[in-house]
Amino acid sequence: MKEIAVRSIRAFEHWQKNMVRHGLASGLGRLFSDDSERSFLYDLGNFLFLAGEGQKEFLQCYTEHHGLEHKILISEEASWQELLNQDASLKRFTRYAFENQADFEIEHLAQLVQSLPQYAEIQPIDAEIYQQLQSETWSVDLKGAWQTFSDFETAGGYGFVVVSQGRICAGISTGLVYKRAIEIEIATDPAYQRQGLARSLAAKMILASCERRMFPLWDAHNEASKNLAEQLGYRLITAYPAYEEREE
Q: What CATH number labels 2-97?
């Protein structure tokens, strides 16, 4: 296994995943190949994309050096999907891909922001809030691909949280920042779910992104996220299989 420069390569040319296309074009993440450069692993944030020929030994080598903890494995290649399906250490689930354009209605989104429950308010992510996001399991992914707020801000990261009586109840953030787009990361404290917080936050994030002329890409982790995206104006492309380590 060897690490090569992050760039658009033939193995990914036919891929439809927005994260892959935007990530490679922006030079983000890390790209690995086998010695013959017939198989490739693209490590981007919490995702690992597998292209080219499916090779069990290649994936094992990556796992030994970098691990798969908190990684979501995705491939559009039949040989890789067959290999992942046969791996007993992984569980398969369904994600949902959306187009990199959407039918946003500004007035509707503004109304959704205003529909936030009276007990809560939306605040932008600042240095103090960014630090707090790392203190709880449900919110840690909201810090995106960075370790410090300074790095987050320098890369063009931004986001918002819902706060009630000094407590962060939900948040939305830039999981990744591309050249003209962002990858949305959204999460809600389990104690505050199904109260419309994510919907108001998502509307706020879309409006802020439009003002910045950055398209807010959405790739849904589950059906609830898919339904929310469709309510906001995103257009579904397809459901697709993804994999992650089984919990012990």
A: 3.40.630.110
